[in-house]
Design a protein that fits this description.
The chain is built from no helices and 27 strands. The relative contact order is 0.11. It has 277 residues and is mostly beta strands.
Length: 277
């Protein structure tokens, strides 16, 4: 269901039954946890043994795995009244950085670095997806109404809201000063986020967008049952496509551009590893 990178050559899958499974780049399981008994809509690791989850059970939780005792500890839990779809560390490599989460309740919870205090940012829409914009210390979210917004976890305010999409945005990703959004309106948009949000490219796809990934030179997206790859230097020409890549839809997509690797996790229960040239 959900997917994220766990450092060098490792990836974590969040499942519909509440497991988090860490895989190597060959798809072999290394370790698994069961932090929930319900679907894990989103998962993010900040170190090898520190991670956060957004769950169908209405909680956003931060966990630490103690290797010596082989125990999993929930260090902080935020309770919502409904599904939590998305979360993000403000600094993806710092376990102590603030964690933002949100879902159906149209409210963003900010769990601060001390893990004892929290703040809430009101949103006019449900929260479908989140990714940090590390160059600006902001977090980007895609909303259920089609809006995308930048929020500041330090001031707990919304910095900017854009309504270019017309249906929900379940897919956002970021790299440096660029971001990518994919929507159920079948459009894929590239954003320059150096100062605000400025759409630099827009593509109309043949099916809904459910996952995106972006790097310095490449962009990838899951559209229906197809996986697409573009070179950002020639964005309006598809670099590669794999049709009928999975059954159903895919929420999980991770790109390792240094290894020319794409990883997908689909509702059909399969994590797939794709190489590209």
């Amino acid at each position: 269901i959900s997917l994220c990178s766990v450092g060098e050559d490792r990836f974590a899958v969040g499942t519909s039954s509440g497991y988090v499974v860490v895989l190597d780049r060959n798809g072999l399981p290394l370790i698994q946890y069961r932090p929930h008994k319900a679907c894990i809509w989103d998962v993010a690791f900040s170190s090898t043994y520190d991670f956060s989850t957004a769950s169908e059970d209405g909680t956003s939780s931060i966990f630490a795995y103690h290797l010596n005792q082989q125990t999993l500890e929930a260090t902080s839990v935020a309770s919502f009244q409904s599904d939590v779809f998305a979360l993000a560390y403000t600094n993806p490599t710092d376990p102590s950085s603030a964690v933002l989460s949100g879902g159906l309740s149209a409210t963003i919870c900010v769990l601060h670095s001390d893990r004892k205090s929290s703040s809430f940012i009101p949103a006019s829409t449900s929260i479908q997806a989140m990714r940090p914009i590390t160059t600006r210390n902001l977090v980007l979210f895609g909303g259920g109404s089609g809006s995308c917004a930048l929020v500041d976890p330090n001031t707990c305010t919304t910095v900017e809201t854009i309504t270019k999409h017309t249906r929900k945005v379940p897919a956002v990703s970021s790299y440096g000063n660029m971001a990518l959004s994919g929507s159920f309106d079948k459009t894929l948009r590239v954003w320059d986020v150096r100062a605000g949000m400025h759409c630099s490219h827009n593509l109309v796809m043949s099916d809904v967008l459910t996952a995106t990934a972006i790097s310095d030179n490449y962009a990838a997206a899951c559209s229906g049952s197809s996986l697409y790859l573009w070179d950002l230097r020639n964005f309006h020409q598809i670099l590669a496509v794999k049709n009928k890549a999975w059954s159903g839809l895919t929420r999980g997509l991770v790109m390792d551009h240094t290894k020319k690797l794409l990883v997908t996790a689909s509702v059909d229960g399969i994590a797939r590893f794709w190489s590209f040239e």
